[in-house]
TrEMBL record:
Keyword entries, A-Z: Kinase, Membrane, Phosphoprotein, Transferase, Transmembrane, Transmembrane helix, Two-component regulatory system
EC code(s) of this entry: 2.7.13.3
TM stretches of this protein: 212-236
Record organism: Candidatus Accumulibacter adjunctus
This protein's name: histidine kinase
GO function term, MF aspect, one: protein histidine kinase activity
Length: 290
């Protein structure tokens, strides 16, 4: 096996191993980063929903409770305020979603989809669980969801969610007596579910990955070519010429010109040693002949 082949095989093996390891590590890091970014967005949206809920309870409801026996205003209900506000957000951010998915909801638009019902059941079964996040494939692309349990922590909630006879009649007039009742204190009745699209951050990560790998391959190609040229100029060509000359000299052919001893590298030292050996040999031969 020639020097060049050996050299290139080792170079290629090192590169392939480096390419695989770097590819795997950078892909993992970029994907993780994209997911963390989306998770951060989802948590921010969740906080925004909680802020709207708190605002409704603290600043809107107190002004309107007085007239609630005449007309029930859903605008005073935190769940309604949060759902409506984040619905507005969807005008500009279509794939973002917020839902107060509830197993037995007052407003039927809060009915859970199957996967949301699964989340609620898992919150019900594991009281210590405060958050579930995950990913789903939908026709509009991959979504990341974050869910928090909705637990009935205050007896005040039961005024409107226990039995229809204790609920405000004005509310029953709008929502009817069939849904959203029978909730118990400390029960998990539903889950706040935020969905955030992942396609753009994932595509950005994939793009960054492609650019990085192509640059790495380009750097390797340049290194490969430069090292091969250096190998040719500095080692293979002079060594091939030296060995051809040594062949000739070994058969008694001293017509060859001396080797140029340019430079201070190992090949130049070899060339000067060869020249000296050749001169000694030539003298020795002349002495024998003479
Ligand atoms: C004054 C009556 C009233 C009180 C008190 C009340 N709710 Fe409601 N709640 C409603 C109404 C009405 C709706 C439906 C709003 C809509 O149209 O989206 C609702 C909706 C909800 C929803 C969304 C699911 C669904 O049923 O449509 C949740 C979750 C919820 N309430 C939780 C609570 C919690 C927790 C409390 C106590 C902190 C509470 N509610 C107190 C009247 C009330």
């Amino acid at each position: 096996m020639g020097l060049r082949l050996k050299f290139n095989l080792v170079l290629l093996a090192v590169f392939l191993a480096g390419f695989a390891v770097t590819g795997y590590v950078s892909r993992t890091l970029l994907d993780r980063h994209a997911r963390e970014q989306v998770l951060g967005e989802a948590r921010l949206l969740m906080e925004a929903a909680l802020a709207v809920r708190a605002y409704t309870v603290d600043q809107v409801r107190p002004h309107l409770v007085g007239q609630m026996d005449k007309v029930f205003l859903p605008q005073t209900v935190p769940a309604f305020a949060a759902t409506e506000t984040l619905q507005h957000l969807r005008r500009n951010y279509a794939n973002y979603a917020y839902k107060e998915a509830t197993l037995n909801p007052t407003n039927l638009r809060d009915r859970p989809a199957d996967w949301e019902a699964d989340l609620i059941h898992s919150f019900r079964n594991r009281a210590e669980q405060k958050e579930i996040s995950g990913e789903r494939d939908t026709p509009t692309g991959r979504l990341l969801y974050v869910a928090h349990p909705i637990r009935i922590e205050s007896p005040a909630c039961l005024q409107c969610h226990s039995t229809p006879d204790v609920a405000p009649p004005s509310m029953i007039r709008i929502y009817g007596p069939a849904n959203g009742f029978g909730w118990k204190l400390n029960e998990v009745v539903g889950a706040q579910v935020v969905s955030v699209p992942m396609s753009v951050p994932l595509e950005n990560a994939a793009q960054a990955f492609r650019t990085f790998m192509v640059s790495l391959a380009a750097v390797f190609a340049v290194v490969f070519v430069v090292l091969n040229l250096l190998l040719s100029w500095l080692i293979i060509r002079p060594v091939t010429r030296l060995s051809a000359a040594a062949d000739k000299v070994s058969t008694g052919d001293f017509e060859q010109p001396e080797f140029p001893e340019k430079g201070g590298d190992e090949v130049a030292v070899l060339a000067s040693s060869f020249n000296r050996m050749r001169r000694s040999l030539e003298k020795a031969m002349q002495m024998i002949d003479g």
